[in-house]
Amino acid sequence: MTDYLKKIEQEINSAIAYGDQEVTLDNCDREPIHLIGHIQSHGVLVVSELTTNGIQTIDFLSENTSQHLGIEPGILLGQPLDALISEHSLEMLRQALTSPVHNSQTYYDLEIHSPRVKSVQASCHENGGLLFIEFQPFLPPDFTSAAFDVDGKDVVAEFTTRMLRAQSFDDLATVMVLFFFEKLNYDRVMVYKFDDDDHGEVVAEAKQDHLEPFLGLNYPASDIPQFARYLYVQNRCRIITSILSEPVPINTMLQDSSNYQLDLRFSNLRSMSPIHIEYLSNMGIEASLTMSIVKDNKLFGMLIMHHYEPRYCELRSREVINQLSFICSDYVKLLDRVEAALGTERSQDIRNLINVHLFDNEQKVNYDDVAASILHVLDGDGIYVAMNGEPLFASGLLHEKIDLITQGLDSSRLSNSQVFYSSNLAKDWPEMFAGDSRICGLMLINLPSDRPSFIAVFRYERAKLVRWAGRKQEYSEADDGRLHARRSFKEWREYTKNQSLPWSNFDILNAKNLRSVFIRYLLRMNERYLAKLVSLDTLTELPNRHFITSRIDLLLDQNVAVGLLLIDCDRFKTINDSLGHDVGDKVLQEVARRLKSLEIPGSVVARLGGDEFTMLIQDGDFDTIEKMAANIVGAFQLPISFEHYNFYVPTSIGVAISAVDSTRSSLMRAADMAMYDAKHNGGNGYKFVNRGLMNKADERLAIEQNIYQALKQNEIVNYYQPITDSRTYSVCGFEVLCRWLKADGEIIPPLKFLGVAEQTGMIIPIGVRVIEQALGDLQRFQQKDRDLFMTLNFSPLQLLDDTTVDYLINEVREKGLDASKIWVEMTEESYIEDEKALIQTLDRLKVHDFKLALDDFGSGYSSMKYLTALPIDIVKFDKTLIDNIHNNAQSFKLLKASRQLASVCNLMTVAEGIETSEQKNCVSEINIDYQQGYLFGKPTDFAAAIKLIG
C-alpha cells in the first residue's frame, strides 16, 4: 500500500459521515448497497478473529466450501486456520499484512489443504479486529475471464505514458476508455464525471459497434446513493461477475454472532444489493468492473466496464486497476493545479488590464472600459459596482432589485463569503428571486468597507439541453416495502430552466483577483475622499481653511499678487440663536451658494468656520478687488428665503492686497483687522486695510504676547473709583477697575487689553487676581467704614466660568466678609451670551447674599425683559443717559422715566459719568440713589482711594 493510499484510507476510516449520510452498517437496511452476510459465488470467504495468543480459528466461513474446496463448512468452522491453509502460506499472509504496499486488492498464491485444489489465488485484509481471506476464482464453465496480457508494471508504464498526453479530464477519460477497452475486452467502457450535485455525465466511451451509444448521457445522482459513493471511495476497484449468480451466505459458530454483522466494506467478494442487481438487469448488463476516481475524498468520476455476459477479471489485473485508480486520481489533481496555474497567469493578465483602466488615468477613469473588461472576463451580461454605499458604474443587464441585494449584504449568505455566486437564484435565493427568470446567475464580490461596497455581475438564463438516460427520478418504495431501481433508460431530453451558465473555477479565481484590484482601488478612493475631507467644508461643500491657507502659501511662494477678502455675516448669530442650528446651517449653505456664484477666473471662495468666509483672488489689481467686494455686499441686499423664512444677512468685508514681503499670516491678519473695522462702522460694507489698522493690529499682537508676562510680574493692578451717596455726597463704595501698570511707569487702560484678554481666555486668571486684591483691600477699607461696599465687574466669560465664581464665594467666606457689601456688576450684553447658564450663576450668587448690578443700562440693549428676568438688585445708568440731562429736557425726562421704572422694580440706582455740578444736581433731583464720575474722583490706587473715606 502506498503512503498516499494509507493516508486516504485513514481519512476515510476516521470519517463518521459522507455527504449528509451517517456511515453505519444500518444504512444498508435503508439503502442496501450490498446484501448483508453474503458474498458473490465465484469465491470463498474465510474470516478469523485476531487473538493475542496467536492462535487463530476459522470463525466465519461462506457456505460454498463443499462446492469449491470439497469440505463441508461445519467441519472447518472453529478449526485452526492451519487446518485449511498451510503454515508457510499463513506466515506469508502475516508478513504481507505488515507490509506498507499491501492492500485489499493485492493477491497471493496460497497452499491449502483441500481434496479439490492444492493452491488458490487469494487476497486478504484486516478490519474491525478480524482477518478476511478471500479465495478466488471458482468460475462456472460459461464465464469468460479478463486479464492484462503483460506484467503489471508494463501495464502501469504504458497507461502512464498515454495518460501524460492528456491536458484535461475529458482527455484523460478518453485515454482510460480506449486503454481498458483494448486491454480487457469488456463490451462497453465508459467514464462518468460527477458534478457538484452528484449527477453524472458520460464524458468518454468505447464500445462494441452494435451497442447503442451512451456518450453525453446524464444520470441522476440517485443512481448511486450516498453510502454507495462512500464504498466506492473505500474500495477503488469493484467487480460483479454475474448478476444471475446466487449470493452465498456466511456461516459462523460464534455464540454471540446473532446480532453480529460482518463489515464487508473492503471485501472484493461482497455481494450486490438487490437494487443494484435490479438496476443492471434493467440496463441489460450482466457483469461489471469499476474503477473509482477520487478527488478531495469524494467520488469525482468512475470508469465503468459493462459486459452483457458473465465475466471475471483476474486478481492480478484488479490489483493493477487499483493502482491506476490512485494514479488517475493524482493526475486529476495535477491537471487542476496546471489549470489553476494557467488560469492564474491569464487572470494576472486580466488583472493588469483592469489596473491600467483604473490607475493609469486616475483623474478621469473610463468606467465603460472597466465594465467591458470585467463582463468579458466573467462572461457576464450586466455589472453594477458600488463603493462606500454609492454607485460607481453600471453597464448591461441590471437587476431592479439591486437595492434589496445591497441590503442583503448583511445576511449570512453573503457576509460570510468574499465571493458569493449562484447560477440558479430562484433555488439558492428564493426569498429574493423566486419566480423571477430574467436573471438567473449572480456573482457578488464583497469589498471590505463600513458601507456597502461590492461588484455584482449578472447572467441571463441560458437554456441548456441535457440528455438523460431515462427520466430523472429518485428510488421509490413499492407496495412490498422494498426500494426499486428505475426501469427505463431510454434517452429523455430536458432543457434546463431558471439557470444561467454555471460559474467555473476560473470565474471564481478571476473574481478573487478582481477583488484584490478593487480593494486597492477602494483604498485609493478612500484616500482621495479623506484628502477631500481635509480640504472640504462638509456643510457648504466649499474649500475649507486648510485648503485656502495652503493656496495662499503656494501663491505667495510663487510671488503671485493676490487679494484676500474676509467676509463675516453680520446677523448670523441672532438667526442661529433664535431659530436653531438647522435653520442656521441652511442660511450658511445659501451664503456659500451666493458667494460661489460670484467667483471669477482665478478666484476661489472658502469657508473658514462659523459664519466666516473668504475669497482669494489671484490678482493684485485694486479696482478688480474693490469691484468684487462691492458685488458681494450687493449680493446680500436681497433676503435669503426658504420655507416660510426671509432673512437679511448683510456682510462685513475686510480686504487686503499682498505686498512683496507679505506672508499668509500677515495677509490674513490684515484682512481680519479690516473686517472688524467694517463691522465696527455698522457693517454691511467693506474696508481696505490701512496703516492705522495695521498699527492697531501690531499693538494688539504686542498685548497678546505680553499680557501673560504682565500678570506673572504683578503688573495688573486694581484702581478704585469712588461711588457717592446722592444725598450726602460722601463716599460709600468703590468700583474696582484694573490697570496694566508697566515697569517703566506706562499705564495701559483697560479698553486696550481687556478685550484681548477676553478673546484669549486670559480674562479668567486676570479676574482671579483682581478679586484676590480687591477683597484684601475691601478688608482695609472697612476698617475705616464698615458699611463701605465694593463693586466687581464681571465679563460674560467670567460669569459663565465656575472656577471664577467658586473662587469669589470661597474667598469671601474665608476672609469673613459680608457678601451683601459686594456688588457683582455685569453688562446687559452678558444676558445675550447664554441666558440659561447666566441665570443659574446669578441665582447661586444671590443664595450667598451677593448684590447683583446691571451695568450700562440704557446703552442700547435696554429692555423690560432684563429687569424682570434677571435677579438683579441695582441698575447703573449708562453715561449716555447722563451727558445732556442739564441742558436737554428730553434726556432729563428719559432718565427720570428710567428711575421710576427701577423704583417700580424695587431696584437701587446708580448714575455713572457725573462730571459737572449741573449733572450732579439733576441726578439728585430725580432721586437716583448713588452717583459716580470724575466730579467725585477718578480711578486711583489704593493709597489715594483710602484717603477719600471720611
Structure description:
GO terms for molecular function: cyclic-guanylate-specific phosphodiesterase activity; photoreceptor activity. This is Diguanylate cyclase (GGDEF)-like protein. Residues 168-327 form the Phytochrome chromophore attachment site domain. Keywords: Chromophore, Photoreceptor protein, Receptor, Sensory transduction. It is a single chain. The protein is built from 33 helices and 42 strands. By secondary structure, it is α+β, with helices and mostly antiparallel strands. It folds into four domains: 3-337, Beta-Lactamase (2-Layer Sandwich), CATH 3.30.450; 361-461 and 497-531, Beta-Lactamase (2-Layer Sandwich); 536-677, Alpha-Beta Plaits, CATH 3.30.70.270; 715-946, TIM Barrel (Alpha-Beta Barrel), CATH 3.20.20.450. It has an eight-stranded mixed β-barrel with strand order 34-35-37-38-39-40-41-42. The chain has a seven-stranded antiparallel beta sheet with strand order 3-14-5-4-8-7-6. The radius of gyration is 52 Å and the shape is elongated. The termini are far apart. The model is unreliable at 1-32 (pLDDT under 50).
